Amino acid sequence: METPTWRDRLREEDELLEQLNAQAEQARRRRAQAMKEGSEQLGSVYALAKELGLSWTAVANAIKKYTTE
Fold first, then answer.
1. DSSP letters for 38-64
2. Confidence of residue 1 (pLDDT cuts 50, 70, 90)
3. Which residues contact 15 (CB under 8 A, 6 or more apart)?
4. What is the pLDDT of residue 69?
5. 68 falls in which pLDDT band (50, 70, 90)?
6. pTM of the shown model
7. Which residues contact 30 (CB under 8 A, 6 or more apart)?
8. What confidence tens digit (pLDDT) does each residue in 12-66 have?
9. 28-48 burial string, b = 16+ CB within 10 Å, else e?
10. CA–CA separation, 33 and 65 (whole Å)
11. What angle do CA 47, 45, 68 make, to 5 degrees?
């Protein structure tokens, strides 16, 4: 069996990276939606951040960035 050329391998890896980036973006949006729901349930972004052990600014920024269309 012949080994693919470096160009073919590079093209395949670029395609894989594009797929992974798209999946990561979808995961960030789902995670931010869960954070939004959690902050609503707990009453504030601060309460959620405390529960998760994250800074409230990180939580607020994720919600703002990934739940707005």
1. HHHHHSSHHHHHHHHTS-HHHHHHHHH
2. confident
3. none
4. 58
5. confident
6. 0.83
7. none
8. 999 999 999 999 999 999 999 999 999 999 999 999 999 999 999 999 999 999 9
9. eeeebeebbebbeeeeebeeb
10. 11
11. 155
How many CA atoms does the CB half-sphere of 49 hold within 13 Å? 13
C-alpha closest to that of 39 among 12, 57, 63: 63
Site of tokens 């959620």: 48
Residue whose pair of structure tokens reads 């931010």 in the numeric block: 32
42, 62, 20, 6 alpha-carbon torsion, rounded to 10°: -150
Which two tokens mark 63?
């919600």
